[in-house]
Design goal:
- This protein is an alpha/beta fold.
- The strands form two sheets. Strands 1, 10, 11, 12, 13, 14, 15 and 16 form an eight-stranded mixed sheet that branches. The protein has an eight-stranded parallel barrel with strand order 2-3-4-5-6-7-8-9.
- The protein starts with 7 loop residues before the first helix and ends in a 5-residue tail after the last strand.
- The structure holds ligand LLP.
Amino acid sequence: MIKGTFPVERFKDIETPFYYYDTRVLRETLDTIREELRRNPEYEMHYAVKANANPKILRIISAAGLGADCVSGGEVRAAIEAGFPADKVVYAGVGKSDREINLALDYNIHCFNVESEAELLIINELAGLKNKTARIALRINPNVGAHTHSNITTGLAENKFGINLEQIESVIEQAIALPHIDFVGIHFHIGSQILDMIDFVALCNRINELTTLFERRRYPIRSINVGGGLGVDYGHPNHKYIPDFHSYFEVFRKHLRLIPGQTLHFELGRSVVAQCGSLITRVLYVKEGTCKRFAIVDAGMTDLIRPALYQAYHRIENISSDEPEVTYDVVGPVCESSDVFGKSIDLNATHRGDFIAIRSAGAYGEIMASQYNCRPLPKGYLNEELL
Ligand code: LLP
């Protein structure tokens, strides 16, 4: 999706800010993933719903045959309502409430990714009350780092996620013994926006160590879930809009030892949806500061919080102007100094009313929007709705 392919004329009828999703990019991304899965029949993909739960996006992903990885009862419901079959839904999260566990049991989801011994015991109890058996995988904290922002690193011993390596054997033994639990395998997730494949190699090595030990103990591991985390190229959304899924899957094919009959599960979120989405906003004012020129837009950190929360870079384009470039700080209207989308950004000369596209915003954009300052939530539109 390159500049010039945005239907700017159609945008004029729509209230800004809003998310614009190009389904051609999404479908091409899904086709690439499906091609990789076809080559590796023991691989299964559950899309991480947390990245974008817009029902229109979820329907396209479920129609492509992917499963869903959820982290709340709300996500489980959203996934099922969008057509994901319950037997392709997995549910992780360190703090599942009884209500959420019951909901997932009622839907007969494929698997709970359990994050503590205490949670295991509660799922066993709640499943027992329903005369059911819950399939579970144990999420292990592998103590493997990832070269990414500390707020989105999850696989270190200091992080709250998963069961620690010292306890894991005793928890597996309990899971095998509990009457209302069917222990299917192990689960990991080391972090997000990971671009250095070396981090995934380290994860594979740690998993191999563990599965060697588990085989010796004769623990029945039917599935290994390696979570998500593949990063996208925020700098080049026009040229590199399909993440390198091939290299990613190759890492696991080369480095992870599976025994016959084992399945390997992935939970990618960002890499599936980031590049199909842009936040479209209008310029309200251009203001000359003492040492800066500000382009003040009508979207704020309430619509896309990633720059404020993680100092994340998103490419910003003026899609209304072809004039020579001028440098701006692109800022929102929210009463917080961190409400800045980009500093010292070269944009085609910008005027009130121009449309600005904030790119690669399909993941962790619309879904993380808030109503701070009593601002309305942004809507999301597909390109095909605007024809
Ligand atoms: N599986 C688990 C257990 C996870 O915690 C996550 C993401 C994923 C899969 C999907 O990871 P992905 O493929 O999208 O990297 N809001 C942050 C990202 C938080 C990611 C949380 N967990 C951001 O905007 O960068």
